[in-house]
């Protein structure tokens, strides 16, 4: 009498008992076959997941829901804990920081993971938010605020595809991107990660997900996207990072939800939960948001990942607790970016299942969501890096696309005819801390979490490089950061000012976003020289420049252009007629924050504003 012909309820009870006891149960029907069903690529993903789940112990399942940072788990430790995912936090890189070393590192995790236990490959994640920005030599694209101004979703999708190819080339198959936040207060340090102050910009550019995930997740050049951060990160009171978003459900739906609806329509494979609170309740523990709204009403079928140690914020006390683990997982969290104390997390989660506080059904649902994406990515068949993709890593062709994105993202805010610059027989004086600094023009999330200043920290061209290269016969270009040497022999001065790199809360400016003392002094000096003045702002958001505006003849917002500062010069010389439009209202004063389209406030330049050259 074949054992399997028991009644379903009895079999289920037996199965559940064995599972809770931590014993793997191998369906007899599969035992007879040489290759387990889940390892059969011709089987349906759903069947492979079902077969694999039935073979998994509670330890296996709890491990799949756990993401550890590379610095806290060796391949052997990761496999011992059966971790489902490893990540690189911002700036967490192998040495040397090269595509080959990344591939060696990630393949080492895969080699151990796929040869122990059930052989479930890990999914490696990294913040590829404007190119594969943790890796030296990657093509660095403009941050989202510039792409919002460019308003060219097709180009954004292409950027996603190039980013995916350069990311997959290093073995990383999960990008924690795109950020689809709708930044409503520019004092927020993550404003530059937003496409715009209204949902339309993020909705339109969410198509980047199709670039990242490709025609099929299983394509060797595809990576899993992660729409983030769900939900309301850009709406906190005062623009405080990880603060409290105090708005009605209707406002939440109207302003912050549409980009995630678009992301789901584009097939986003994962969603990252936001640090902020909504009316005093941390998103990471909010079942209505994660389960009822995201998974239920929006029908999100991928998996939900926490942000960095985000569950630890639920009770406001330092150190995550069993209560927080229970609340987050029962709220619908599928994977937890712990990221360091993963042994404690694994033990805590297992205990919460064994004591009945977290139902096995929730664990199985989380695992089904995670494993489905791993099968769809083809990780079981191709766990190792496709190193052939490294052939065009950071290539000239990829940089050419970056330069086009820079051109299109430039917004011309003022021009009395001083622009475009004459290429020939000109005498151009270039000044400012951001004219010749690759680090400043790339901004945060570049090689390191916070980014860094430095003339040549990444390969590419500075704005000064572009101005020099574009100069024609009889033209002299002089550069001095502080403007020393400016005199009436020059026909035009170009001052490149703005912000230096930052990320997340370190970029919060409660007092508003203003020019620093160096920039103010420079503009004062140049104004005093009487030389016609062009100002270029390199910044993660609008900067209060009202006081200086009367003495500025031409004003261009360059945002954070990334690798190809020469794209800014293309606009200054008129090789590209500027067409960028503000995706953020430019304030008349820092004290106007928050200021957004339709709120009745009068900014210096409105949302959607941008000039072009009158063609002679
Ligand atoms: C950070 C960010 C998130 C990022 C994650 C991993 O704190 O909030 O955007 O993806 O941690 O680096």
List the helices and strands and how they pair.
Elements: H1 8-20, H2 28-31, H3 45-55, H4 58-64, E1 66-69, H5 75-80, E2 85-88, H6 99-113, E3 123-126, H7 144-150, H8 153-168, E4 174-175, H9 199-205, H10 208-213, E5 226-230, E6 244-245, H11 249-256, H12 258-265, E7 270-273, E8 277-278, E9 281-282, H13 287-297, E10 303-305, H14 322-331, E11 336-337, H15 342-354, H16 360-376, H17 396-409, E12 411-415, E13 427-431, H18 438-442, H19 463-470, E14 476-479, E15 492-498, H20 517-529, E16 533-538, E17 554-557, H21 566-572
Parallel strand pairs: 1-2, 1-11, 2-3, 3-4, 5-7, 6-8, 7-10, 13-14, 13-15, 15-16, 16-17
Antiparallel strand pairs: 8-9, 12-17
Helix pairs in contact: 3-16, 7-17, 8-17, 9-12, 13-14, 17-21, 19-21
Describe this structure as you would to a colleague:
Keywords: Glycosidase, Hydrolase, Signal. GO terms for molecular function: beta-glucosidase activity. Belongs to the glycosyl hydrolase 3 family. The protein has 616 residues and is α/β, with parallel strands linked by helices. The protein folds into two domains: 2-389, TIM Barrel (Alpha-Beta Barrel); 396-592, Glycoside hydrolase family 3 C-terminal domain (Rossmann fold). It contains 21 helices and 17 strands. It has helices at residues 8-20, 28-31, 45-55, 58-64, 75-80, 99-113, 144-150, 153-168, 199-205, 208-213, 249-256, 258-265, 287-297, 322-331, 342-354, 360-376, 396-409, 438-442, 463-470, 517-529, 566-572; strands at 66-69, 85-88, 123-126, 174-175, 226-230, 244-245, 270-273, 277-278, 281-282, 303-305, 336-337, 411-415, 427-431, 476-479, 492-498, 533-538, 554-557. A six-stranded mixed sheet has the order 12-17-16-15-13-14, sandwiched between helices. Helix 20 links the parallel strand 15 (492-498) and strand 16 (533-538). The radius of gyration is 26 Å and the shape is globular. The N and C termini lie far apart (91 Å). Alpha-D-glucopyranose binds at residues 89-90, 127, 176, 228, 307-308.
